[in-house]
UniProtKB/TrEMBL annotation:
It comes from the Bacteria. This is Lysophospholipid acyltransferase family protein. It comes from Streptomyces lienomycini. The keyword Repeat does not apply. The chain crosses the membrane at residues 267-291, 355-372, 378-398. InterPro entries: Plipid/glycerol_acylTrfase (IPR002123).
């Protein structure tokens, strides 16, 4: 390979905005589908990136990983991505793709990008030419090496892991963590076999990191994503509104931190269960039933009774911020013959706002802490201790 020629430190500014928007789009998409992590950085200036290819999601992973100052463009199969107008628009606008022929003339298509490389842009290529099953590597073609030599820029290997789980070949979108590991530039005398070995090694390291996860967190994810996940959360919230001593927000802290994308499902299930349980509890209390209310005190009941006597159904708005159990308000409202419709409406406002706020908070926290998933059990231990201490404090305050 020839001596590397001086290149711009970054791509021309006119390309930055489009590249930044693509990076944000795919980073958010991958984060919401299970998580995204990157290790390593590209060298300054233009370069050719080569990566393994097992899924259409590989393009999204690379665009999310590469800085906007490199203004990356992706080599895409002309016979597939540019065979129809709608695919051409998707590839060009969402991925910055350019056509590469696979049936002859592909090297000429690549060499046409040499000036872009010298101007500081990054060209991303999949040397295998097509998607392979995860862990399998085909023959690496020479086109990427020829382009890097012609433009006088580095050739940088990248390993991608997890995309075949998120979007399998001929499969549907699933949840999963994607990791991208960027390696050091290859030596000038590198061969296609050297490039293949470097990408394979980076892929193996990224895959090993991707699998470092808590077994308990995976089981929680499996349960909440099952057909019974929302039902179990709903039943917990119903029980808490009647007698169960543990608030449903405990599920938010347990489930949403582990599976951030379940936030909407969990939040809606909690609110629906709270309202259903509250309405049932209201009717039972109005009929004279006395349900068990563990971890409550006479002072709690007196406070709720006073507020309901003064404000009626509006009194439930105090519940989320005073630490009094919802079931205490439900029981006292039933005894006071508060109209059920008014109670449901006001409960939806009060409980819904708090649940939505807490769920959003834990969803953001879960997204930010995805790389620490293997310590999920430790998080639960710490959280359980903090919750127990807080609950004891509330009971002491209202004793």
């Amino acid at each position: 390979m020839t001596t590397l020629a001086p290149a711009r430190a970054s791509a021309p500014p006119r390309h930055w905005l489009a590249s930044a928007l693509r990076r944000l789009l795919w980073w958010v998409t991958l984060t919401l589908t299970g998580g995204f992590q990157r290790r390593g950085r590209l060298p300054r200036g233009g370069c050719v990136v080569i990566a393994n290819h097992s899924s259409h999601a590989d393009t999204a992973a690379l665009l999310a990983a590469l800085d906007a100052r490199h203004a990356p463009v992706i080599g895409a199969a002309a016979d597939y991505w540019f065979a129809s107008p709608w695919r051409r628009r998707i590839c060009s606008r969402l991925a910055g793709g350019f056509p590469v022929r696979r049936d002859g003339g592909g090297v000429d298509d690549l060499l046409a990008m040499a000036d872009e490389l010298r101007a500081g842009r990054t060209v991303v290529l999949f040397p295998e030419g097509t998607r392979r099953a995860d862990g399998e590597f085909g023959t690496f073609h020479r086109g990427a090496l020829v382009l890097a030599e012609e433009a006088g820029v580095p050739l940088v290997p990248v390993g991608i892991a997890g995309t075949d789980k998120v979007l399998p070949k001929h499969g549907r979108l699933r949840s999963g963590v994607v990791r991208v590991r960027i390696g050091a530039p290859l030596p000038a005398a590198a061969t296609p076999e050297d490039a293949r070995a470097s990408v394979a090694a980076l892929h193996a390291r990224a895959e090993a990191e991707r699998k470092r996860d808590s077994g308990l967190r995976r089981r929680v994810s499996s349960v909440i994503n099952s057909r019974w996940g929302a039902v179990l959360v709903f039943l917990w919230a119903v029980a808490e509104a009647l007698s169960w001593p543990l608030i449903p927000e405990l599920l938010v802290a347990t489930i949403v931190i582990a599976v951030p994308r379940s936030a909407v499902k969990v939040s809606l299930s909690i609110v629906a269960g709270t309202l259903a349980g509250g309405l049932l509890g209201l009717q039972l209390a109005a009929a004279g039933a006395q349900l068990p209310a563990p971890l409550t005190t006479d002072r709690m009941r007196a406070q709720a009774r006073h507020e309901i006597a003064v404000e009626g159904a509006d009194a439930v708005r105090h519940q989320p911020w005073k630490g009094l159990p919802y079931k205490v308000y439900v029981a006292e409202a039933g005894k006071a013959d508060v109209p059920p419709v008014d109670w449901v409406v006001e409960s939806a406002k009060a409980r819904g706002s708090r649940t939505a706020m807490l769920t959003a908070l834990f969803a953001v926290l879960g997204l930010l802490l995805q790389r620490f998933r293997r310590w999920y059990v430790g998080y639960l231990v710490v959280f359980a201790g903090v919750f127990a201490w807080s609950l004891a404090g509330v009971i002491r305050t209202w004793s």
